[in-house]
């Protein structure tokens, strides 16, 4: 698994769906210098764990927006599958009401560039390339800063849903560090004591 932290987020241009609109050339590059980005991958449309995550991001969207964060989802489904799922009521397993963009990585190149693509290729006895496992994305999540640099990543296996609360906590920690130069210890939350490195590189707690 590649570690992208500290590196530019892989660039792409792909189709995406936002509400009822299909966007032909969607790119995260549009946010550079303007917004932070939480870019998350999920395995499949019309599944079980995935809609709980997508709805939860929507429920907390105002909190992300308060922090100047754009939320963008992605899976290896087509834009037509995204569109159909977005038009399906929540009571029927759909994600109607989700307003942030969903990227269609149907060629699986984006998932591969972010190194969250599950499944492998092997060569069979006839010399043909065959897929081992299903080529869908793990539950990867990447926090990208205003300069387009990945500052945080986490990747869960398919059955394991993520924590929106933890995602917001990490956004707060990054922004606190950028604004104050103070580093954030384990389980730090907004409003808690942070730490500052002294000239010898030894950190000490600061009281607010």
UniProtKB/TrEMBL annotation:
Cross-referenced Gene3D superfamilies: Glutaredoxin
Keyword set, alphabetical order: Oxidoreductase
Signal sequence interval, chain numbering: none
A Pfam short name: AhpC-TSA
Boundaries of every Thioredoxin domain copy: 3-176
Family recorded in the similarity comment: Belongs to the peroxiredoxin family. AhpC/Prx1 subfamily.
Protein name, entry field: Peroxiredoxin
Species annotation: Luteolibacter algae
């Amino acid at each position: 698994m590649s570690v992208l932290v500290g590196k530019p987020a892989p660039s792409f241009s792909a189709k995406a769906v936002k509400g009822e609109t299909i966007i032909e050339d969607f790119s995260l590059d549009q946010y550079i210098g303007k917004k932070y980005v939480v870019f998350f991958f999920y395995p499949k449309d019309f599944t079980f764990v995935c809609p709980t995550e997508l709805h939860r991001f929507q429920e907390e969207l105002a909190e992300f927006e308060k922090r100047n964060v754009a939320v963008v989802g992605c899976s290896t489904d087509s834009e037509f599958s995204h569109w159909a799922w977005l038009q399906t009521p929540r009571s029927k397993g759909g994600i109607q009401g989700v307003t942030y963009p969903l990227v269609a990585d149907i060629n699986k190149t984006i998932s591969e560039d972010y190194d969250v693509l599950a499944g492998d290729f092997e060569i069979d006895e006839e010399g043909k390339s065959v897929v081992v496992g299903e080529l869908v994305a793990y539950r990867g999540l990447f926090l990208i800063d205003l300069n387009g640099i990945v500052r945080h990543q986490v990747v869960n296996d398919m059955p394991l849903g993520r924590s929106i609360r933890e995602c917001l906590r990490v956004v707060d920690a990054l922004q606190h560090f950028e604004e104050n130069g103070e580093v954030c210890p384990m389980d730090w939350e907004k409003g808690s004591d942070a730490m500052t490195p002294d000239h010898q590189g030894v950190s000490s707690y600061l009281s607010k």
